[in-house]
Amino acid sequence: MLAYPQIDPVAIALGPLKIHWYGLMYLVGIGGAWLLASSRLKAFDPAWSKDKLSDLVFWVAMGIILGGRFGYVLFYNFGHFLADPLSLFKVWEGGMSFHGGFIGVMLATWWFGKRNDKTFFELMDFIAPLVPIGLGAGRLGNFINAELWGKATDVPWAMVFPTDPAQLPRHPSQLYQFAMEGVALFLILWLYTRKPRPTMAVSGVFALSYGCFRIIAEFVRVPDAQLGYLAFGWLTMGQLLSLPMVIVGIALIVFAYRRQAAQGAV
């Protein structure tokens, strides 16, 4: 068993002002995405300026934050919201959803594209390789907060998390997700986009890969206490929300390459 590193969730404390590592991880994700996007900007659209890119990153960030919060309340804690509607705004109590953030990003991308003469999938294909940076940083934030830990296990790398009332050795599922959703997904998309791909294909690879990784991770991650398992003693909300991503991802890839082949045959 490995010892859990006792990391103070508060990175910086200046009197009553406290800056948490989890919040800093959002800055790392957004800043890293902006830097990577800057290096790819000319290949995407030589006419775009850094200011235009900054506008896109800003609106995507808003989609992540607002969508993530709304998604958590809707998908994971709707009963509590009905009892206390103001809980939607109590962000200091925690609670963000990737799938809600993803919906927020899609809405922000659609809105931004309409005003900047870009199609939805042109922008989504450009954004997709940037997302794993934020996903990886977020999972490290979960680990520092000792939250979203995994099931009890006897594997040699199990850890006892200080927030676990049972104090059992558990899978460090946050690190599993960091490795899959952050590192592996980044490498997959980075290598895949080294060559031009048909529109929609990059978005499809992202959706398919993330959906598969999240479904796998949920088998060793403890579900949210207020929801538990939804069916069969193993199906979680995360898996239920990720399954459509797998299906849509496959459909996008197939459609993208079939359309490319049909256009090439004309």
Question: Could you write a compact summary of the structure shown?
Answer:
Pathway: Protein modification; lipoprotein biosynthesis (diacylglyceryl transfer). The chain has 266 residues and is mainly alpha-helical.
List the helices and strands and how they pair.
Blueprint: E1 10-14, E2 17-20, H1 21-44, H2 50-76, H3 78-83, H4 98-115, H5 120-127, H6 131-144, H7 173-192, H8 201-218, H9 237-265
Helix pairs in contact: 1-2, 1-6, 2-4, 6-7, 7-8, 8-9
Task: Give an overview in words.
It is a single chain. The chain has helices spanning 21-44, 50-76, 78-83, 98-115, 120-127, 131-144, 173-192, 201-218, 237-265, and strands at 10-14, 17-20. By secondary structure, the chain is mainly α. α6 runs antiparallel to α7 (173-192) and α7 runs antiparallel to α8 (201-218). The longest helix is centred in the last third of the chain and has 29 residues, at 237-265. The mean pLDDT is 92. A 1,2-diacyl-sn-glycero-3-phospho-(1'-sn-glycerol) binds at residue 139. Pathway: Protein modification; lipoprotein biosynthesis (diacylglyceryl transfer). GO terms for molecular function: phosphatidylglycerol-prolipoprotein diacylglyceryl transferase activity.
Beta strand count: 2
Judged by helices, strands and strand pairing, the structural class is mainly alpha
Which percent band covers the strand fraction?
Answer: under 5%
The dominant shape is globular
What is the CA-based Rg, rounded? Answer: 19 Å
The tally of structural domains comes to 1
Report the major sheet. Answer: 2 strands, antiparallel
Mean pLDDT: 92
The helix-strand sequence is: EEHHHHHHHHH
Query: Low-confidence segments, ≥5 residues, pLDDT <50?
Result: none
The N- to C-terminal Cα distance equals: 61 Å
Strand order of the biggest β-sheet: 1-2
Share of helix, binned: 55-70%
Task: Output the number of helix runs.
Answer: 9
EC number: 2.5.1.145
InterPro entries: Lgt (IPR001640)
GO molecular function: phosphatidylglycerol-prolipoprotein diacylglyceryl transferase activity
Pfam families: LGT (PF01790)
